[in-house]
Amino acid sequence: MNMKRIAAEYAVQYIEDGMKVGLGTGSTAYWAIQRIGERVKEGLSIQAVATSKVSERQAIELGIPIIPFRELDSLDVTIDGADEVNSDLDLIKGGGGALLREKIVAHHSKRLIIVADERKLVQTLGQFPLPVEIVPFALEWTLNALQRLDCRTQLRTDEEQLFVTDNGNYIVDCNFGSIELPFKLHNEILGIPGVVDNGLFIGRADLVVIAHYDGIVEVL
Ligand code: 5RP
């Protein structure tokens, strides 16, 4: 059983006719977009914005109407994945490198629904290295400043090239170990000049749909 698919398809039930919908990024959000595409073919009328070029391409191929972000004042619902979810519904995101657009779209959504398989549930955030998007300018200084927050940094690469986000920036994966105070860390990282944003999503998720391996879907 594909648990990512089960969680994603469950969440698509929350989408209603006429809604403005944010499309997430990653292998779980992929299944939500596929299901939305099916529903659009069946007659569902929505407008959507995508959190990455990859998701936008997928949506266009499926006939989901995509509109430019600037033409929207707000979104009704966004369905997106996560790398880690704790019991407060705080998240680590950005494993796919789309955290900045994901955070912008989440911020402007009335409802953020996270979809995941049970492996993403954790007691304490931080086993998954925290993705941080940084501008290429002054790369070394920004890396040093991140390391002074007590983490090991790894500049993300893709096929031996530096990974470049849809916004032309780099991603640093920061291993902090257990993140006991996520909100504090989030703000400390944002205080570093050169950092654009980080993958901590604190107090943003409204609903988390978890598919368990015994087939049970849990809504948190
Ligand atoms: C992309 C993300 C993804 O939602 C997150 O990495 C989860 O990915 P997947 O569903 O492939 O496990 O934040 O930037």
From TrEMBL:
<protein>
    <recommendedName>
        <fullName>Ribose-5-phosphate isomerase A</fullName>
        <ecNumber>5.3.1.6</ecNumber>
    </recommendedName>
</protein>
<feature type="binding site">
    <location>
        <begin position="25"/>
        <end position="28"/>
    </location>
    <ligand>
        <name>substrate</name>
    </ligand>
</feature>
<keyword id="KW-0413">Isomerase</keyword>
<comment type="subunit">
    <text>Homodimer.</text>
</comment>
<feature type="binding site">
    <location>
        <begin position="93"/>
        <end position="96"/>
    </location>
    <ligand>
        <name>substrate</name>
    </ligand>
</feature>
<comment type="function">
    <text>Catalyzes the reversible conversion of ribose-5-phosphate to ribulose 5-phosphate.</text>
</comment>
<dbReference type="GO" id="GO:0009052">
    <property type="term" value="P:pentose-phosphate shunt, non-oxidative branch"/>
</dbReference>
<dbReference type="InterPro" id="IPR037171">
    <property type="entry name" value="NagB/RpiA_transferase-like"/>
</dbReference>
<dbReference type="GO" id="GO:0005829">
    <property type="term" value="C:cytosol"/>
</dbReference>
<feature type="binding site">
    <location>
        <begin position="80"/>
        <end position="83"/>
    </location>
    <ligand>
        <name>substrate</name>
    </ligand>
</feature>
<dbReference type="GO" id="GO:0004751">
    <property type="term" value="F:ribose-5-phosphate isomerase activity"/>
</dbReference>
<feature type="active site" description="Proton acceptor">
    <location>
        <position position="102"/>
    </location>
</feature>
<dbReference type="InterPro" id="IPR004788">
    <property type="entry name" value="Ribose5P_isomerase_type_A"/>
</dbReference>
<dbReference type="GO" id="GO:0006014">
    <property type="term" value="P:D-ribose metabolic process"/>
</dbReference>
<feature type="binding site">
    <location>
        <position position="120"/>
    </location>
    <ligand>
        <name>substrate</name>
    </ligand>
</feature>
<dbReference type="InterPro" id="IPR020672">
    <property type="entry name" value="Ribose5P_isomerase_typA_subgr"/>
</dbReference>
<dbReference type="Pfam" id="PF06026">
    <property type="entry name" value="Rib_5-P_isom_A"/>
</dbReference>
<comment type="similarity">
    <text>Belongs to the ribose 5-phosphate isomerase family.</text>
</comment>
<comment type="pathway">
    <text>Carbohydrate degradation; pentose phosphate pathway; D-ribose 5-phosphate from D-ribulose 5-phosphate (non-oxidative stage): step 1/1.</text>
</comment>
